[in-house]
Write a structure and sequence with these properties.
By secondary structure, the protein is of the alpha/beta class. It has helices at 11-18, 30-33, 35-43, 79-86, 99-103, 112-118, 150-156, and strands at 23-27, 52-59, 66-72, 91-93, 123-126, 134-141, 144-149, 160-162. A five-stranded mixed beta sheet has the order 4-2-3-5-8. Strands 1-7-6 form a three-stranded antiparallel beta sheet.
C-alpha cells in the first residue's frame, strides 16, 4: 500500500496555526488558469469575489513607504482613490522585478499574512469583502491558498478596510 505524501506546510500556515486561526488549504492557480480558475472555484461553492489578490504599492516615491492592498481577483484598484483615502500624495505599483527584495515573495505568492509578519507593511482590504464570512488568500506559494474567516484574517494582520475603487 502506497504511503500518502504529506504536504509540507508553508510559513503562512504555521503562522495561522500559532495564532489559532482555522483555515482550509486550497489549490488555486490564477496565474496559469485565469478566468477558468474562478469558474472552478464557483463550481466548488466558493464565491469568486471572495478570492483575493495581494497588491504591493509604493507611496510618495519613497523606497520605504510600502503598503499592501487585498482585493478580489476580478477587481481593479483606482490608485488616485487609494492615495486620497490614505492621505498620500501618490501611490503606484511596486516594481514587479523587485518584489522578492521588497516582500520576500515572487509575483503570485504575495500574501498579507507573511508580509504583515515579515515586513510589517500596513495591510488594507477592499471594503467590498465585508460581506464575505470567508476569504481566500495566498499561502505564500504560487498556486497554494488558504481559506480563512475574513474578520480573523483582518485582525491577525492588523488590517483596515479601504475604498479602492469608485
Amino acid at each position: 500500500m502506497a504511503k500518502k505524501k504529506k504536504i509540507k506546510k508553508t510559513n503562512e500556515e504555521r503562522i495561522l496555526d500559532q495564532h489559532g486561526v482555522d483555515y482550509q488549504e486550497t489549490d488555486f492557480d490564477w496565474l496559469k488558469l485565469g478566468e477558468s480558475a474562478l469558474a472552478q472555484a464557483e463550481a466548488e461553492g466558493i464565491p469568486a469575489k471572495s478570492i483575493l489578490k495581494t497588491i504591493v504599492l509604493q507611496a510618495n516615491g519613497s523606497g520605504r513607504d510600502y503598503l499592501v492592498i487585498c482585493l478580489p481577483l476580478e477587481y481593479e484598484i483606482d490608485l488616485k482613490i487609494v492615495a486620497a483615502e490614505l492621505g498620500k500624495k501618490q501611490v503606484h505599483l511596486a516594481d514587479n522585478k523587485k518584489l522578492v527584495q521588497i516582500t520576500g515573495y515572487v509575483h503570485g505568492a504575495n500574501t498579507p499574512i507573511g508580509i504583515s509578519f515579515k515586513q510589517g507593511f500596513p495591510i488594507y482590504f477592499d471594503e467590498r469583502i465585508k460581506d464575505f464570512p470567508e476569504v481566500s488568500v495566498s499561502a505564500g506559494k504560487v498556486g497554494r491558498s488558504v481559506r480563512v474567516n475574513q474578520k480573523e484574517l483582518v485582525k491577525l494582520v492588523k488590517g483596515k478596510y479601504l475604498k479602492v475603487q469608485k
